[in-house]
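Late entry, written up from scratch paper. The run itself happened at the end of the previous shift, but nothing got recorded in the book at the time, so transcribing now.
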Amino acid sequence: MAFNFKGRRVVVAGGSRGIGRSIALGFAAAGADVSICARGAATLEATRAEVAKHGNKAHAATCDLADGAAVTRYVTAAAAALGGIDILVNNASGFGMSDDEAGWSAGLAVDVMAMVRASHAALPSLEAAKDGAIIHISSISGLRPSVRTPAYAAVKATMIHYTTSQAAALGRKGIRVNCIAPGSIEFPGGTWEKRRLAGDPLYKKIHDSIPFGRLGMPEEVADVALFLASPFARWVTGQTIAVDGGQVLGG
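Output as recorded:
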């Protein structure tokens, strides 16, 4: 399956590392113009430079996605830099794990409200685009209860539900909305690599629970994002696809 996004304009909110980086690079390799944002300027610029190597427009801006006004400013600037928005990917997470004020505040501010605010800010461009698409990056944690990370699981479930509501509301405007629920994904500098290097027993527990006997890679999530944004998925909307190597099957 060959993806061709030549002439398409993609915004990845939370696109400097891990899954977001792989999604941005995947779209750029397929011919798209890409804008990314994140808080860390150095990592952001490094990824922007990688995107630019594909010869298309590569825009980046620092943005605290917990700040509502900053989200709107970023999306507006991205639309101006790219000449519009055809595809919006909401990838950021506040990683609010604990069942307390801090855990809930982090998850609601970034996972949920950044998704809502970026979608609202991008909507005029998406309406003007042909076959606009929104993709939210949730988690398999949103598909089941979690004693270890209750706040994180709850906000990821909210993302999944909002996907269905958005899809129903925006279908008449020709905009498809879908969600990806990754399992445990390992990449340099990421949470799971840190757990592995620290000898955290949770890493082995998760590793051994996955039928394929390994954690996932960011590129495997990116491939599904490209599919969902492509004409190959033109009749797919309101869906959540688990990309987890069967991890969720283990309960």
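The radius of gyration is 17 Å.
(Scratch paper discarded after transcription.)
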